[in-house]
Design brief:
The strands form two sheets. A five-stranded parallel β-sheet has the order 3-2-1-4-5, sandwiched between helices. A four-stranded antiparallel β-sheet has the order 6-9-7-8, sandwiched between helices. It has three domains: 1-390, Na+/H+ antiporter like fold, CATH 1.20.1530; 399-499 and 507-592, NAD(P)-binding Rossmann-like Domain (Rossmann fold); 609-647. The chain contains 26 helices and nine strands. It starts with a helix and ends in a 7-residue tail after the last helix. It has 718 residues and is an alpha/beta fold. Helix content is 69%, strand content 6%. The chain crosses the membrane at residues 6-24, 31-48, 54-77, 89-112, 118-138, 150-170, 182-205, 217-237, 271-287, 293-310, 331-351, 357-378.
């Protein structure tokens, strides 16, 4: 029996790791492979039966696991960060959560026949979404940065708020179900202990951390141990008040000034991943397949209310007064997968409610798992096409994640942000992060390769990683981590040549060393830091046809270090040892050491002197050309005048000839006319003479006839 239990525990651990790896590899929420694994081992093959294996230990294991999960989630609830992430997030985790609860609880009551207390508890359980299911989905869908940030922070913040709401509802049900206690007294005592003891314990741990009461190597262990002790002690004082206590304790610690909880969060996240994975396999294995099938059509109706009524209603009401467009709201209305926290808390509460004899408690877990499966599967498959249809996808990921927030990194980030590129600086050095925040640069405080960064670091719009930190032991981890996410060709590091010096076991792999080509060969963090300390500055230069890259090199010399350039179509190109010649028509951002700046001053003076001499020479040449042109124009004018005079003379000569010819013609015409006149006169005279002669002849004939008639006797007609 002992060997069997040991084997099952080892099997759960191995399968938890495999399921987490499968979810990461397939870019899916790990909850899906964990759920399938649990269902296969439990109801499917009947290999794993948690109740038989663990017996009475099952409830304490689940109870302590849920306590750790709630405490870790509460540690992320920083009220200042909620305000920094906009009105929409604040509305969603307050007004939106209440609207969702008010929609789902009546649906469970009327559609599933739950009593009102159980329906209210179910509604509170499925309010939460959670980063463990949101983050993998966002990586696949890649919506706009603003929408991704809203969904991420909603999942982060709603976990402890939803859990707190569920705990309060459960406390009310548990107190009301106990006939031996007064309802108001028991509920009031639970709230007083939960809030009072939680706040006091949170303050005590925060004070101890701030005063370094615990040595560094004991800090995480001390916090975990004290938290579990407070959880058990709270339950001993007032039954079932421990969950509320640890939730308030985590929230108080997260908002306490001067307390650095980064290490605690990282430790708790590692522990939480193991607990969540193991718990989910155990909880899924406890599911009764008959109970799942026996939910009937009411379960589908509740799922419809969750996805198509509660979520859109909460989004549109919470979005009032924000700058979100209707397309943004429709996308947010569709993405709200339920997560592991809901499954873990529901299983714990179901066991407790069954012990109290609450009717309908056995149906809570199957219905919660049904909602989880439905929302995760449906939304994972459809969120991408829906975002593309609405036009809210991020597009090409031109942003940068820079590991290392040194002065150089901050200056480069400011230049790129001014060009509308998204840049996030990550560093575990608080002073560097503080300086970046003061310069309004988005930052992530901590190790960007940690589990915390996986859930809380917003990488939407980011497609490349520049590893530029002095942490030689962490740089390879960050590089390999993001090579798995973005691809090896998207991760670049500085060539710290000293990092590969030493014995064989300290040397780095060839595949890693090949990517250490950022900004050129042998460009290390130490070299850049030294240049910045000596006064190096960043310079933006337009590479044009008139000022080519060769002229850039001529002006600034070989010490100038090109970093990145921006193309005409707003694409960011990282310069490495493999980059060829910088093309024309780009904006080049380069690092200019003091020598390059001095050379630029000298070269600029030489260029200005050369330009001045060229200008003088050009003016002289222009003056000589103008004089030559004036002489040529005068000569041409004189030639034109001579030619014009010649043509005038020719015209006058031609005119004189024409005039003389006209006179001669006129004289000839006059002579002809005179001759014709004389001839006409002669003809007329001759005609007159002829007429006179004829008249005389006629008169003579008449006289003769008259004389003849007088001499001749008359003749009688016959």
């Amino acid at each position: 029996m002992v060997e069997h239990i040991t084997g099952m525990l080892a099997l759960i651990g191995v399968l938890s790791l495999l399921c987490q790896w499968a979810g990461w590899k397939l870019r899916l929420p790990a909850i899906l492979p964990l759920l399938l694994c649990g269902l296969l081992l439990g109801p499917g093959l009947n290999i794993l039966n948690p109740d038989e294996i663990f017996g009475d230990l099952l409830f304490p294991i689940i109870s302590l696991g849920v306590a750790v999960i709630l405490f870790e989630g509460a540690l992320t609830l920083n009220f200042k960060e909620i305000k920094e992430h906009g009105r929409m997030v604040t509305h969603l985790v307050t007004i939106g959560a209440l609207i969702t609860w008010a929609c789902i609880a009546p649906a469970a009551h009327f559609l599933m026949g739950f009593d009102w207390p159980v329906a209210l508890l179910f509604g509170a359980l499925v309010v939460v979404t959670g980063p463990t299911v949101i983050v993998p989905m966002l990586r696949t869908v890649q919506p706009k940065s603003k929408l991704s940030s809203i969904l991420r922070w909603e999942g982060i913040v709603i976990d402890p708020i939803g859990a707190l709401l569920a705990v309060l509802v459960y406390e009310y049900i548990a107190v009301a179900a106990d006939p031996t206690t007064h309802l108001l007294y028991a509920l009031g005592l639970t709230l007083v202990i939960g809030f009072g003891l939680g706040a006091a314990a949170g303050y005590f741990i925060g004070f101890a951390i701030r005063k370094n009461v615990f040595p560094h190597y004991l800090r995480n262990t001390a916090v975990l141990t004290i938290m579990l002790g407070i959880f058990v002690g709270s339950n001993m004082i007032q039954e079932e008040s421990g969950l509320l206590t640890v939730t308030v304790m985590g929230i108080w610690l997260a908002n306490m000034r001067g307390v650095d909880i980064a290490d605690i969060l990282e430790f708790k996240e590692t522990l939480t991943v193991l607990l969540i994975s193991a718990l989910f396999i155990l909880l899924a294995a406890r599911l009764d397949s008959n109970a799942m099938l026996g939910l009937g059509a009411g379960a589908f109706a509740v799922l419809f209310v969750v996805m198509f009524i509660a979520r859109p209603l909460s989004i549109w009401i919470s979005g009032l007064g924000t700058n979100l467009t209707s397309k943004d709201k429709w996308f947010l209305s569709w993405v709200a997968p339920r997560g592991i926290v809901a499954a873990a808390i529901s299983s714990l509460f179901a066991i407790k409610l069954e012990e109290l004899g609450i009717h309908g408690a056995s149906s809570i877990v199957p219905l919660v798992f049904f909602i989880i499966i439905g929302t995760v599967v449906i939304q994972s498959l459809t969120a991408g096409p829906w975002a593309k249809y609405l036009g809210v996808k991020e597009g090409s990921n031109q942003g940068l994640l820079i590991f290392g927030a040194s002065k150089f990194s901050r200056d480069l980030a400011k230049e790129l942000i001014a060009k509308d590129f998204k840049v996030v600086l990550a560093d575990s050095n608080w002073d560097s992060i503080r300086q970046a925040r003061m310069e309004n640069i988005p930052v992530y405080f901590g190790n960007p390769a940690s589990e915390h960064a996986t859930n809380y670091l917003d990488t939407s719009g980011i497609g490349r990683v520049l590893v530029m930190s002095p942490y030689r032991s962490i740089n390879p981890l960050v590089s390999f981590h993001y090579q798995d996410i973005f691809g090896s060709e998207k991760v670049f590091g500085l060539n710290n040549s000293e990092a590969n010096v030493g014995s064989g076991r300290h040397q780095l792999s060839e595949s890693y060393l090949k990517r250490l080509c950022l900004f050129g060969e042998n460009i290390s963090y130490a070299k850049i830091a030294s240049l910045m300390a000596k006064g190096a500055i960043l310079k933006v230069t337009n590479i044009t046809e008139n000022f080519t890259y060769d002229k850039f090199r001529e002006r600034y010399g070989e010490t100038a270090m090109p970093l990145v350039y921006i193309t005409k179509d707003a694409k960011l190109r990282i310069i490495t040892a493999e980059t060829g010649k910088i093309p024309v028509g780009v904006e080049l951002i380069s690092l200019l050491p003091a020598e390059a700046q001095e050379q630029a001053v000298i070269q600029r003076a030489l260029d200005e002197e050369a330009a001045r001499l060229a200008k003088i020479k050009a003016e002289e040449e222009a003056k000589a050309a103008a004089e030559a042109r004036a002489i040529r124009e005068a000569q041409e004018a004189e030639q034109r005048a001579i030619e014009k005079a010649r043509r005038k003379e020719e015209e006058l000569a031609k005119f004189a000839e024409a005039e003389q010819a006209a006179l001669l013609a006129q004289e000839q015409a006059d002579l002809i006319e005179l001759a014709q006149g004389e001839k006409t006169a002669e003809i007329e005279q001759a005609t007159n003479l002829s007429s006179q002669q004829l008249h005389v002849n006629s008169a003579e004939e008449q006289d003769a006839e008259a004389n003849g008639m007088a001499d001749t006797p008359a003749v009688t007609k016959s």
